[in-house]
Amino acid sequence: MTRTWWKEAVIYQVYPRSFRDSDGDGIGDLKGIEEKLDYLKELGVDVIWLGPVYKSPNDDYGYDVSDYYEIMDEFGSMEDWTSLCSEIHRRGMKIMMDIILNHTSDEHAWFQASKTPGNNPYRDYYYWREGDSEPNNWESFFGGSAWKYDEEARAYYLHLFSVKQPDLNWSHDVLRREMYSMMRFWLDKGVDAFRLDAVNLLVKPGEWQDAELAEPDHCLAPCGHLIANGEGIHDIFQEMNNEVFSRYPMFTVAEMAGVSAEEGLLYTDSTRKELDSIIYFEHMDVDNGPGGRWETIPFSLPAFKQIITRWQLMLQGKGWIGLYLNNHDQPRVVSRWGNDSRYRVESAKMFATCIHMLQGSPYIYQGEEIGMTNIRFDSIQDYRDVETLNYYRIECENKGRSHEVVMRDIYLKSRDNARTPMQWDDSVYAGFGTVQPWIDVNPNYKEVNVEKALADPDSVLHYYRELIRLRKRYDVIVYGDYSPLLEEHSEVFAYRRTLNDETLLVVTNFSEREQMVDLGEPTSEPSLLLANYPPAEEPLTALRLRPFEARIYLAR
Ligand code: TEU
User: Fold this and answer.
1) CB of 392 closer than 6 A to ligand 1?
2) pLDDT (tens place) for every residue of the chain, 556 residues total
3) Is 387 near ligand 1, meaning CB less than 6 Å away?
4) Based on the domain organization, do 83 and 180 belong to the same domain?
5) Residues 30 and 178 in one domain
6) What gap in Å lies between CA 305 and CA 477, rounded to an integer?
7) Closest ligand 1 atom, residue 162 Cα
């Protein structure tokens, strides 16, 4: 067991626009994050992942960068960023920046310069294709064609995400060097970690062949599987590692959709010198129907457990993962797979237990630690996310589906579910700021907020603190081997972690019904480390688990 700081770390994701508005413009900002650092320190997190804060026209809220070297006006200035960075460090925490490499904004100077046809040094920074029609039938992840015609350029450009996010051409040596120096710029400023956005899409296939529509591969848009993990992608990460990562005491986490555990190992195997860890999607896609993420099918715990187990065993002792059930792209898990009314607190604690005790580094998405829930706005006017708005337009206007039917999908899967303002207290706008925020506050803020959670020893928040405290105390949580238990059970997820003479037993009931389970005779007397219900005196061979009950036992 080699100690590695980032394996031991808990990472907290801040979505800057929705965290805290310090200057009364309705939009979260860097000063607002700085105000809340003591709260994060007391929670016990080690690393703060800052969503993108670069200059951006905000078509995809910062994931469309128009200048990598400047801070977005709404968020503050470079001085504010420097101050935030040093205040994070002063408290013994670290800072992770979100790095967007696959595309820029169409308002980036490179893209503007690339439009001039002919011999132009920027032309090949992007994928420009001349012709009378779109080069192929690829669809964007955000709906509609992945190609857009530009009059000035007299050509089509590729955009896998929104029309305002043209894809960069990573086979271009000069572009790659530009990106490496951009990354070094931020590391030289003291950044400790990178979250690399959508990076398994960097290489595009040499042939622009059509995608077969109605793909069986439902976690990606119709062209996704043709692009994900393309030939030569590992060479890029080895080069990036050599040019950038290996020169700093940093760590990387790569966000990658459409990656199997086998591929996940190739990316993160420490001997290959590519990436340190990966955030994969497979377990989050279990409720996607054949039509994609907007089509929701019932959650299947057996499918979920199989995926988790496959990844745990595949990477054990070789690679590393980020553990998560929530982020800014996913609906809130308490609403999605738990019960956000009757068992909000119980289910929030249960999901946290299940995730935090696995092997990997746990990620906490803002508001998850107080059990924030999905929202339901009646009108599409109240939604802000480009993916959601495109979906509504395509389904209602182009396909003629009714408002009610389309809104049902949006209530289940819209990314705005997780993007409503952080609920700090029960004052107007939930303590997020003093004016109407850019997106409405969840109406349950009087019930669900930080101030209330701090005052209640049984809150979700105090439970998260306990989970983090346990991680700092028991090496088995970070470094122990994983083995699944009760693999056939359809409602209970249980597993064992072992390191030397320490054994951890984790048992979580994913259902609203009581479940009887037998974990087998223990080899030594187990002690209950943490649970989300008052302790019940039962032998491990006859556990009676209450709705969404979670327990962690330690045996030596
Ligand atoms: O997400 C990449 C990604 O794979 C998304 O398509 C994801 O599947 C989708 O958001 C689910 O609805 C990253 C960022 O996390 C996301 O916020 C950005 O919109 C996207 O890249 C483009 O930069």
Assistant:
1) no
2) 889 999 999 999 999 999 999 999 999 999 999 999 999 999 999 999 999 999 999 999 999 999 999 999 999 999 999 999 999 999 999 999 999 999 999 999 999 999 998 889 999 999 999 999 999 999 999 999 999 999 999 999 999 999 999 999 999 999 999 999 999 999 999 999 999 999 999 999 988 888 876 554 445 677 888 999 999 999 999 999 999 999 999 999 999 999 999 999 999 999 999 999 999 999 999 999 988 899 999 999 999 999 999 999 999 999 999 999 999 999 999 999 999 999 999 999 999 999 999 999 999 999 999 999 999 999 999 999 999 999 999 999 999 999 999 999 999 999 999 999 999 999 999 999 999 999 999 999 999 999 999 999 999 999 999 999 999 999 999 999 999 999 999 999 999 999 999 999 999 999 999 999 999 987 788 999 999 999 998 999 999 999 999 999 999 8
3) yes
4) yes
5) yes
6) 18
7) 22
pTM above 0.95, yes or no: yes
CA of 198 to the centre of ligand 1 (A): 7
Give the nearest ligand 1 atom to 221 CA: 6
Cβ-Cβ contacts under 8 Å for 459 (sequence gap 6 or more): 345, 370, 452, 453
**Ligand 1, closest atom to CA 60?**
19
Same domain for 95 and 114, yes or no, is: no
Domain containing 372 equals 5-105+174-466
Q: Mutation test of ligand 1: which of 141, 165, 202, 225 has the most ligand atoms closer than 8 Å to its C-beta?
A: 141
Our CA angle for 58, 59, 65, nearest 5°, is: 60
- In this prediction the ipTM stands at 0.97
Rounded CA-CA distance 194/68 in Å is 14
Q: Domain end: 466, 495, 510, which one?
A: 466
Q: Which residues pair with 157 in a beta bridge?
A: 128, 148
CATH number of the domain residue 531 falls in:
2.60.40.1180
Active site residues: 197, 255
161 lines ligand 1 (CB under 6 A): yes
Cβ atoms of 136 and 208 closer than 8 Å: yes
Last residue of a domain, one of 408, 438, 466: 466
> Residue 130 belongs to a domain with what CATH number?
3.90.400.10
Q: How many domains does the chain have?
A: 3
Regarding whether 421 and 310 lie in a shared domain, the answer is: yes
Alpha-carbon gap, residue 371 to 348, rounded angstroms: 6
Neighbouring CB atoms inside 10 A of 231's CB total 9
Residue nearest to atom 17 of ligand 1 (CA): 329
Residue of minimum CA distance from atom 7 in ligand 1: 329
Same domain as 252, residue 135? no
